[in-house]
């Protein structure tokens, strides 16, 4: 678990937002960032985001829910959300763990994901649900 990224402490209740600020999330992160990762599936390798996960109850949209656009592909199980104004991916309901949201670490207030250093990559090309 990661309790600080660069100079920014990861708060137990941490805010996140898209680039334009229209969409604001509140994340419950009592253990900080747990297992931040990249994914090499066709969508994630294009968006390039580092994600971490929270239980569904650990993410709340506090502003801009009406501006979130849903994108689904392939099995249409995962639910990827992005801001319809600035296009930033904020979070997604995970395919491999539908009881969790993956959130874009780069959207966390005060966090520069490049300060994480090396981040492991999950094998999304050979997704566990496809086996």
Automatic annotation (TrEMBL):
<keyword id="KW-0479">Metal-binding</keyword>
<dbReference type="GO" id="GO:0016846">
    <property type="term" value="F:carbon-sulfur lyase activity"/>
</dbReference>
<dbReference type="InterPro" id="IPR006913">
    <property type="entry name" value="CENP-V/GFA"/>
</dbReference>
<comment type="similarity">
    <text>Belongs to the Gfa family.</text>
</comment>
<dbReference type="InterPro" id="IPR052355">
    <property type="entry name" value="CENP-V-like"/>
</dbReference>
<keyword id="KW-0862">Zinc</keyword>
<protein>
    <submittedName>
        <fullName>Aldehyde-activating protein</fullName>
    </submittedName>
</protein>
<dbReference type="GO" id="GO:0046872">
    <property type="term" value="F:metal ion binding"/>
</dbReference>
<dbReference type="InterPro" id="IPR011057">
    <property type="entry name" value="Mss4-like_sf"/>
</dbReference>
<feature type="domain" description="CENP-V/GFA">
    <location>
        <begin position="14"/>
        <end position="130"/>
    </location>
</feature>
<dbReference type="Pfam" id="PF04828">
    <property type="entry name" value="GFA"/>
</dbReference>
């Amino acid at each position: 678990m990661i309790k600080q990224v660069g100079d920014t402490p990861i708060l137990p209740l941490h805010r996140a937002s898209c680039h334009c600020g229209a969409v604001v999330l509140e994340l419950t992160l009592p253990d900080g960032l747990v297992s931040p990762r990249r994914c090499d599936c066709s969508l994630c390798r294009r968006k390039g985001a580092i994600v971490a996960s929270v239980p569904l109850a650990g993410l709340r949209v506090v502003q801009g829910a009406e501006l979130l656009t849903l994108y689904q592909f392939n099995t249409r199980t995962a639910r990827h959300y992005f801001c319809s104004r600035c296009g930033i991916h904020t979070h997604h309901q995970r395919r491999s763990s539908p009881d969790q949201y993956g959130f874009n670490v780069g959207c966390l207030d005060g966090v520069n994901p490049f300060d994480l250093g090396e981040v492991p990559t999950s094998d999304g090309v050979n997704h566990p649900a496809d086996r």
